[in-house]
Amino acid sequence: MFFDDEIPAEQQPFVQKFIAQLRQATPPASSMTAEDQSQILTRVQARLQQAEHEIASKEEAAFQQEDLKKLSLPSPLRETSSRRVSRGRHLLEIVAAVFVVGVLIGGAFLLFTPHQSTSGIPLGATAGATKPPVTIRTQAGGLEMSLRTTAGPYFLSELLATDIILTNHSQKSLVLQGDDLVNYCTGAFSVTTTGGNDPHYDFPPTPPMSCPFTSTKLAAGQTLVAHGYIPLAKSGSVTVTVNARVLTVSNDGSLTGGPDPFDGHWPSLHIQVASKIPADRLLSVQRQGSHLTIDAPPSVQSSLLYTDSSYCGNSSFSTQGGQWRPVKGSMLQEPSCSGGPVRWTYAIGVPGYAIASGQISS
Questions:
Q1: Most buried one in 86, 96, 130, 198, CB count within 10 A?
Q2: pLDDT tens readout for residues 283-292
Q3: Of residues 319 and 323, which shows the higher confidence score?
Q4: Could you read off the pLDDT of 3-19 as tens digits, one per residue?
Q5: What are the φ and ψ backbone dihedral angles of 250, each rounded to 5 degrees?
Q6: What is the Cα–Cα distance from 103 to 109, expressed in whole angstroms?
Q7: pLDDT at 306
């Protein structure tokens, strides 16, 4: 970003040439955000004030010395001395102009040089990062629901952590079908993604299960918090939406499907999902005998999660229903089967990183 109003020193030929060269090496201002421009302007103003103060101090000292000399000099020498002071001021102006332009260029390169991974995609948020999560709220009929999820930027196959907070501000109780879980067999809440384009990510499917009926009562004034995880399976423009199974209590005490308390306006978040995975957001898995060893950065080793499905012969004996569970240490044990060959499908992830998934048959 450059100023249009030039000081006299900036009009000198060699200064103009220097400024032109710097402008060619500087990224255009249109690529800067308002926040970035505000930051660099603040820094430049501080530098200008410092430069002006130094110039003023030097000028004042020079004039004081000249005043003393003029008292003892004849008139011709007084004029020569004045011209020397003028040239000194002129030189200081040139130095200040070059210094200011240098501050502009240096600040621009420091603030606006793009920092990208080897894949060319901005880094995603790491687990435990200080960047706050994204929160979306919706209110209707005395109910307030919030969706809180991992902050972006987002990329294909990333695992998002989600919190759903439902508060009952009404004067009557609310009954939900399911428990305080998200995207689980017996969970009352679901978080789905719609939209997006190819390329896409094929998340391992969860085998069908017979889920027991459960219900959760949310009394007036109470808050229910559910935690879960969702994979980003498509790239491009994606919408993340929350839903819940609300029940109505009949006069005889039976529970039936109730009306939509939010009238279709559940919390939703619109995000952009990059099609490439940042190189430093990958988890690697190595098979060693009957174990899977997970290679992950030390900062997220203790936060690793997994979900899996197992098939023994022609039957599935998975009982997890898609639930994400903590990894103990950095290894997973391959399940055993006495009724025939086993087929094991797994997915390993941590919020802010790409999911590592695969299938093993033995």
A1: 96
A2: 999 998 888 9
A3: 323
A4: 444 555 456 565 465 45
A5: -75, 170
A6: 10
A7: 94
Q: Which of 167, 225, 156 is nearest to 193 (CA)?
A: 156
DSSP 30: G
* pLDDT digits 0-9 by tens, 167-182: 999 988 889 999 988 8
- pTM comes to 0.62
**Strand pairing partners for 285?**
294
Question: What contacts 271, CB < 8 A, 6 or more positions away?
Answer: 152, 154, 237, 238, 239, 240
Long-range contacts of 170-174 (CB under 8 A, 24+ apart): 170/141, 170/142, 170/143, 170/220, 171/142, 171/220, 172/220, 173/217, 173/218, 173/219, 173/220, 174/143, 174/217, 174/218, 174/246, 174/261
Quick one: DSSP state of residue 351? T
Helix (H) or strand (E) holding 197: strand 187-200
Q: Which residue has the higher pLDDT, 88 or 258?
A: 258
Q: Which residues contact 229 (CB under 8 A, 6 or more apart)?
A: 159, 160, 161, 162, 182, 183, 305, 324, 349, 351
* Residue-level pLDDT at 211: 80
What are the CA-CA distances from residue 155 to residues 158, 196, 201, 230 (Å)? 6, 12, 11, 13
What tokens appear for 42 in the block?
A: 């603040």
Q: Residue 360: name the closest of 319, 332, 320 by CA.
A: 332
